[in-house]
């Protein structure tokens, strides 16, 4: 028996109208139901978007289309607020500019505010900075090559230690203060090196050269109104170019040998001079001693003669006989004596001198024989 299709029902009698299927549910009906609960199913995405739009219209005055401008305005204001706040570190100073013209006050360390973009800020480091000049790390660089006063080429590597004392003048009086400082430093170093021999740059007078260069740089930068104070200009290295390094080292070795020979000669001269001075002092001392001895002897003889003369004046005969006897004693004490009698002629005498000499020789022979 065929099933009735009245009211759109299915063969099981459960179907109805409204495009429902034979099980009482339309094939295109949403799972979540329409406008009410979802009967436990997942939420509909389109429904969520629609509800969010409705809520946004209720929040934003004038509706969603009218509040877009306000959102953009808030974003712009937030960006401007972020750009208007800046921080200055302890080793920095800030200079604010209003329409490109710097203000008089200087911003110290801390958090600051300015009206951006009407006002801008320039940050300057005020602690000591170092500018290296020379061929460090670049063998082909010629900025350190200089001509000395004795026509030698030297490669000087030095640094400039400086601090910024006035940030306003540092920023706006010179277009490129660091580049200007480098050019002035090179010019000052070439000027000073050009007046001195190469030996002064290599070893002898580096400290004096550094002082002169610093004074020249400081004077020039003050003329420019740079706001920079030069603390020191240390010379880190000074050497001949690589092309002539061998020849220069040979000259250095020859100069060192010369210095060594001169030192050895000075030592030898001092040694000989010391010995000669010692000998001269000894001769002078001996001569002085001899003079004193001779003078003293002469003085003593003169005094003895005077005393004898005084005695002679008192007793001439006695003094004459005593002098005669003393003189004959000194003359005859070492001579062989022969006594002659005028009446009897030659008289035999006892040879005492020969006997004493023989006795002495015999005693010496006996001593030699007794000792091995």
Could you explain the architecture of this structure?
HflC and HflK may interact to form a multimeric complex. Belongs to the band 7/mec-2 family. HflK subfamily. It holds the Pfam family HflK_N. There is one protein chain. This protein is rod-shaped. A hairpin with a 5-residue loop joins strand 7 (145-147) and strand 8 (153-164). The model is unreliable at 1-38 (pLDDT under 50). It has 372 residues and is α+β, with helices and mostly antiparallel strands. The longest helix is centred in the C-terminal third of the chain and has 70 residues, at 245-314. Strands 6, 7, 8, 9 and 10 form a five-stranded antiparallel β-sheet that branches. Strands 3-2-5 form a three-stranded antiparallel β-sheet. It is built from nine helices and twelve strands. Among the domains are: 46-127, no CATH class; 129-239, Band 7 domain (Tetrahydropterin Synthase, Chain A, 2-Layer Sandwich), CATH 3.30.479.
């Amino acid at each position: 028996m065929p099933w009735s299709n009245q009211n759109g029902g299915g063969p099981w009698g459960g179907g109805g109208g409204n495009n429902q299927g034979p099980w009482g549910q339309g094939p295109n009906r949403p799972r979540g139901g329409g406008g009410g609960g979802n009967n436990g199913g997942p939420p509909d995405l389109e429904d969520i978007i629609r509800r969010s739009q409705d809520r946004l219209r209720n929040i934003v005055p004038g509706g969603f289309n009218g509040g877009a401008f306000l959102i953009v305005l808030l974003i712009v204001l937030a960006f401007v607020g972020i750009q208007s706040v800046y921080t200055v570190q302890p080793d920095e100073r800030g200079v604010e500019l209003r329409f490109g013209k710097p203000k008089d006050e200087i911003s110290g360390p801390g958090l600051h505010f300015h009206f951006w973009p009407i006002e801008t800020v320039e940050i300057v480091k005020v602690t000591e900075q170092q500018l290296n000049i020379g061929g460090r790390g670049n063998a082909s660089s010629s900025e350190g090559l200089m001509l000395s006063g004795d026509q030698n080429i030297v490669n000087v590597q030095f640094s400039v230690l400086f601090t910024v004392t006035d940030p306003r003048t540092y920023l706006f009086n010179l277009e490129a203060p660091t580049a200007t400082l480098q050019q002035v430093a090179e010019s000052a170093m070439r000027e000073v090196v050009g007046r001195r021999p190469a030996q002064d740059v290599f070893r002898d007078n580096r400290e004096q050269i550094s002082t002169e260069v610093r004074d020249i740089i400081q004077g020039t930068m003050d003329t420019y109104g740079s706001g920079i104070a030069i603390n020191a200009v240390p010379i880190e290295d000074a050497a001949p170019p690589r092309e002539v390094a061998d020849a220069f080292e040979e000259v250095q070795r020859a100069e060192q040998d010369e210095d060594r020979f001169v030192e050895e000669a000075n030592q030898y001269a001092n040694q000989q001079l010391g010995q000669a001075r010692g000998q001269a002092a000894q001769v002078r001392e001996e001569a002085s001693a001899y003079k004193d001895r001779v003078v003293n002897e002469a003085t003593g003889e003169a005094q003895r003669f005077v005393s004898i003369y005084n005695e002679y004046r008192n007793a001439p005969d006695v003094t004459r006989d005593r002098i005669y006897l003393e003189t004959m004693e000194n003359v005859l004490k070492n001579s062989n004596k022969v006594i002659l009698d005028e009446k009897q002629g030659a008289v035999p005498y006892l040879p005492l001198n020969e006997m004493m000499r023989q006795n002495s020789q015999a005693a010496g022979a006996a001593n030699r024989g007794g000792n091995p």
